[in-house]
Design a protein that fits this description.
This is MFS transporter. By secondary structure, the chain is mainly α. It contains six helices and two strands; from the N terminus they run αααααββα.
């Protein structure tokens, strides 16, 4: 095929195909933008659905995340991690109250005596 015998040139079909291509391009760009926006607003929706106490902080971090993307990652972590449970778990680990030292609600005697001996030597 040469350049002089191109199909659809000089007809109305050429114009229609250009309009269809433009609409598809604009639709694709709009769909990508809407998808990006929904993904970016994910921490805010998660925080509001779970009645998170730090909804203002998460909203601010999400908006700042448009400029600095690592801030958006902090908003996702804060929104999806239950802060109270995480702090309780860290406190239990810090104090040494791990689930392995207890069996059926009764403290394990060998671990209890080992803890007591260690506390006495450290005191």
């Amino acid at each position: 095929m040469s350049l002089f015998s191109m199909p659809f040139t000089g007809t109305n079909i050429d114009k229609v195909l250009h309009i269809v291509a433009g609409v598809v391009m604009i639709g694709t760009i709009a769909a990508i933008g809407i998808g990006f926006w929904k993904l970016h607003e994910l921490p805010i929706h998660k925080a509001s659905s779970s009645q998170h106490h730090q909804i203002g902080l998460i909203t601010a971090l999400t908006w700042i995340g448009f400029i600095w993307h690592w801030v958006w990652v902090l908003a996702v972590i804060i929104a999806f991690v239950d802060g109270e449970q995480a702090l309780k778990r860290l406190r239990d680990i810090w104090h040494g109250d791990s689930p392995n030292t207890k069996s059926n609600g009764v403290a394990n005697d060998s671990s209890l005596t080992a803890q007591t001996k260690e506390e006495q030597t450290n005191a």
